[in-house]
Amino acid sequence: MEARKQFSRIGWAFVVFCLVDVLVQIVMGVVISIWVRQGSSKMPEMDLMLLGQMSMYVFAFPVFWLMMKRIPSWRKQNEEKMTTGQLLLWVVVCFGFTYIGNVVGQLLMSGVETFTGNPQENPVFDVLDDMNPWMVFLTTVIIAPVMEELMFRKFLIDRIVPFGQRTAVVVSGLAFGLFHGNFYQFFYAFCLGMIFAYIYSSTGRVRYGIMLHMMINLMGGVIPVVLMQGMDGFSAETVFSVVGIFLLGLLMLGSTIGAIVLACIYVRKLTWFQGWAPVPEKGLCREILTAPGVIGFLAVCVLLFALSQ
Length: 309
What we know:
Elements: H1 3-37, H2 45-69, H3 84-116, H4 123-128, H5 133-160, H6 165-179, H7 183-203, H8 206-229, H9 236-266, H10 284-289, H11 292-308
């Protein structure tokens, strides 16, 4: 299994996914524009969000899957179960590093705003804030976790773990962070991506990552939107929202402290397995970074980050 060729083919699969997604969105935009000009009612924003998910997972994902299917892969034969206690510990770690990564992203973009004088806005909150909570739940808690875990854990790790579990975990996390296309999400997505990658590569069960991913998106996407939308005026709903935001704050503080403590205790106790694919003479990192498909994927990600500013 040649590393450069393997990673290049994987990189091109992600590039094609992005290109098909953009192409379908352009076509949808043209169709919607024509539809509106002909006198029909304006397309609701929540429907546009769902159409965005459709362009990725109905049109782009099947092409991505067909390309990845042709790439040699490995699957863990003996799947391992996690106990309830282990799963709860991972929940704390996931929540904690989500908040830590989010703070890092916010601080970085605040620094950029101060240095450049240009206001920086989180593109995710800008979209979610005006959406129907049920549509947010469908897209971010149900659809996205399942599809993203299949893409960045199941399909990706199965094809790169022969080069070592550490390599698979880092590459999966980095690709997942870059795929989000902005610095607000990059740091926590990178951390979560590595956590989900470690869990999947260790257990062989993608369901654990999906469950954790759903919980993170529920607590970080749906619930804050519902609470913030209930802050207008003064009513029983406003009081409920204030209490909810307070409890979220406690969750944020507690899980952050818990994640740091758990990381200090267990990070050196994590077990890793070695790869069995031949190690390139020039070094694995160099082979990965010089693979044409990887260069193409990185170029697409840089473009996404530039467009998000």
